[in-house]
Design goal:
By secondary structure, the chain is an alpha+beta fold. Among the domains are: 3-83, Immunoglobulin-like (Sandwich), CATH 2.60.40; 98-201, Cadherins (Immunoglobulin-like); 208-305, Cadherins (Immunoglobulin-like), CATH 2.60.40.60; 313-424, Sandwich (Immunoglobulin-like), CATH 2.60.40. The protein is 13% helix and 31% strand. It contains six helices and 31 strands. It has helices at 439-475, 478-487, 492-497, 501-504, 536-551, 601-607; strands at residues 3-6, 23-29, 34-36, 42-45, 57-66, 75-83, 98-104, 112-117, 129-133, 142-146, 152-157, 168-177, 191-201, 208-209, 213-219, 227-230, 233-234, 243-247, 257-259, 265-268, 279-288, 295-305, 313-314, 319-323, 331-338, 349-353, 363-367, 372-377, 389-398, 405-417, 423-425. The strands form nine sheets. Strands 24, 26, 29, 30 and 31 form a five-stranded mixed beta sheet that branches. It is elongated, with a radius of gyration of 67 Å. The protein starts with a strand and ends in an 11-residue tail after the last helix. InterPro entries: Cadherin, Cadherin-like_dom, Cadherin-like_sf, Cadherin_CS, Cadherin_Y-type_LIR, Catenin-bd_sf.
Length: 618
């Protein structure tokens, strides 16, 4: 009797004329599933609980027929296709009550170890199933989820399995509809349960360490070879195998320790220093003797314990100062201590004067009991003239075992301060304090010294400039040039064969007319030149010398003018002797003198081919 739909037929006859336009409906095909009201055309279900899972679609043939007329009941037909809509009216059902699974004990956590399936005849979302493990035996080790494509229950591992611990597990799984239709609650529970039995398969497993991490302690400077601990691993399989240990070498840190391959004991291989490395972290590997490929690894942490081996020392500074006008009991410096050892919590340092300094009335040490101490004065004022530096020996002890102590010397410098205690001078002024000079006097003295140095430098510079000007003037004097050329003769043979002093003193001529050490050559006469009007003394001297050499048969084969330049043996100018010259002045070529440099410039000008004038020769 459930309403399905309503059909309606129309008749073109006149409804006022008899029953020609009156329509009656009936079902020709579709019974006994559906029925139709003859007057209204309403179609309804004719059977209860029609099941879509049995038949989904139906074709119903409907006839509409009028009630009269001359032709006697005309009829028309139409086909109605009816599809049943699915509702969640069927619970899921397991095809069997017990599922058996076999799982290796080496299965990884989170991996799928098996599948089970419940069947729901509904369609679409009405057939979606949710699986749950009933609390009990397997709730902590296993989990189950639904495969959204196949609607299967996927069983996964939540914790590792161990055949040696437990060989089998049994638990129940419940399958229920995910989307319930409240209209069908009265039909019954829409869920089903099944039993799952899991058998754990024994596998050849690696050794298992007794701890996940091993932590050991050892004192620094422990002798090499000392055993500091051990690791333990066992083969838990049925056929137990022996285990071998070795270190997982990764870096040089691992070389500080060794492990016994059979016993698993760990020993030191080198001396340890906590100040260098306070903790070591490395890995130990255990393998089965029967199957060395099966290995397991564990971390080992070794803490190096501190041994009190270094004494405490004063932290910087090691030097301080005190004012000359300091009062007794005044704190001039607060000191602290440092220890090269890694000090434990609550480490305490104590400060005191050494025994030899305790009796001196200069300074004292006040221990504040908080790892600091103050240096206090014990005198009313200090004098730099009497003593500039004080050396205060301080003894510092630590509270570790064994107790370590050291004596540290604090240097105290006496300084001049103002009335507020501000230091004014500690170093430079100390040199002048005995003579009572002030800062202003020191500055004035330094300025005077600088001025004197500037004057001396200027005086030396002027003297050098004056000397340079004098030398330049002397080079321009022709008389100096003659003497200068005479002093710089050609070579040793020229200076030994002829006394050049004759040029400097004309009076010597009379005593040295004849040279007996050289054989005279044939006399060659040269043309006499009239004397020049300028420089009469030099002119007369040169003319006289020329005349004497021209008529003297015992004269050497070169005249004295050869010494005016670098001529003679060993000289590029060779000999300038007039004896070897040609008989006429016109036959001689003096152009080569201009190639001898600035020293022969005057001679080149005098005897040049174009500028030569015998009347100007002096």
């Amino acid at each position: 009797g459930a309403y399905v739909l309503q059909v309606k037929a129309t008749d073109a006859d006149d409804p006022t004329y008899g029953n020609s336009a009156r329509v009656v409906y009936s079902i020709l095909q579709g019974q006994p599933y559906f029925s139709i009201d003859p007057k209204t055309g309403v179609i309804r279900t004719a059977l209860p609980n029609m099941d879509r899972e049995v038949k989904e679609q139906y074709q119903v043939l409907i006839q509409a027929k009028d009630m009269g007329g001359q032709l006697g009941g005309l009829a028309g037909t139409t086909t109605v296709n009816i599809t049943l809509t699915d509702v969640n009216d069927n619970p899921p059902r397991f095809p069997k009550s017990i599922f058996h699974l076999k799982v290796p004990e080496t299965s990884h956590v989170g991996s799928a170890i098996g599948r089970i399936r419940a069947v729901d005849p509904d369609f679409g979302k009405n057939a979606e199933i949710e699986y749950n493990i009933v609390p009990g035996d397997g709730g902590n080790l296993f989990d189950i989820t639904t495969d959204e494509y196949t609607q299967e229950g996927v069983i996964k591992l939540k914790k590792p399995l161990d055949f040696e611990t437990k060989k089998a597990y049994t638990f129940k799984v419940e399958a229920s509809n995910l989307h319930l239709d409240h209209r069908f609650h009265s039909v019954g529970p829409f869920k089903d349960t099944a039993t799952v039995k899991i058998n754990v398969l024994d596998m050849d497993e690696p050794p298992v360490f007794s701890k996940p991490v091993y932590t050991m302690d050892v004192y620094e400077d422990t002798p090499v070879g000392t055993i500091i601990g051990a690791v333990t691993a066992q083969d838990l399989d049925a056929g137990s195998s022996s285990v071998r240990y070795f270190m997982d070498w990764k870096n040089d840190v691992d070389s500080y320790f060794t492990i016994d391959a059979t016993e698993g004991t760990i020993a030191t291989n080198e001396l340890l220093d906590r100040e260098s490395t306070a903790q070591y972290n490395f890995s130990i590997i255990a393998s089965k003797v029967s199957n060395p490929l099966l290995t397991s690894k564990v971390n080992v942490i070794i803490n190096v314990l501190d041994v009190n081996e270094f004494p405490p020392e004063i932290s910087v500074p090691y030097e301080t100062s005190v004012c000359e006008n300091a009062k007794p009991g005044q704190v001039i410096q607060t000191i602290t201590a440092a220890d090269k050892d890694l000090s434990p919590a609550g480490q305490r340092f104590s400060f005191k004067l050494s025994s030899e300094a305790s009796n001196k009335p200069n300074f004292t040490v006040h221990d504040y009991r908080n790892n600091t101490a103050g240096i206090e004065t014990r005198r009313n004022g200090y004098s730099r003239r009497q003593q500039e530096l004080y050396f205060l020996p301080i003894v510092i002890e630590d509270s570790s075992y064994p107790v370590q102590s050291s004596t540290n010397t604090l240097t105290i410098r006496v300084c001049r301060c103002d009335s507020d205690g501000t230091i004014q001078s500690c170093n430079v002024e100390a040199i002048f304090l005995p003579v009572g000079l002030s800062t202003g006097a020191l500055i004035a003295i330094l300025l005077c010294i600088v001025i004197l140095l500037v004057i001396v430098v200027l005086y030396v510079a002027l003297r050098r400039q004056k000397k340079k000007d004098t030398l330049m003037t002397s080079k321009e004097d022709i008389r100096d040039n003659v003497i200068h050329y005479d002093d710089e003769g050609g070579g040793e043979e020229d200076t030994q064969a002829f006394d050049i002093g004759a040029l400097r003193n004309p009076k010597v001529i009379e005593d040295n007319k004849i040279r007996r050490d050289i054989k005279p050559d044939t006399l060659r006469f040269t043309r006499h030149r009239p004397p020049a009007e300028d420089n009469t003394d030099i002119r007369d001297f040169i003319n006289q010398r020329l005349q004497e050499n021209d008529v003297d048969p015992s004269a050497p084969p070169y005249d004295s003018l050869a010494t005016y330049a670098y001529e003679g043996n060993g000289s590029v100018a060779e000999s300038l002797s007039s004896i070897d010259s040609l008989t006429t002045e016109a036959d001689q070529d003096y152009d080569y003198l201009s190639d001898w440099g600035p020293r022969f410039k005057i001679l080149a000008d005098m005897f040049g081919e174009e500028s030569y004038n015998p009347d100007k020769v002096t």
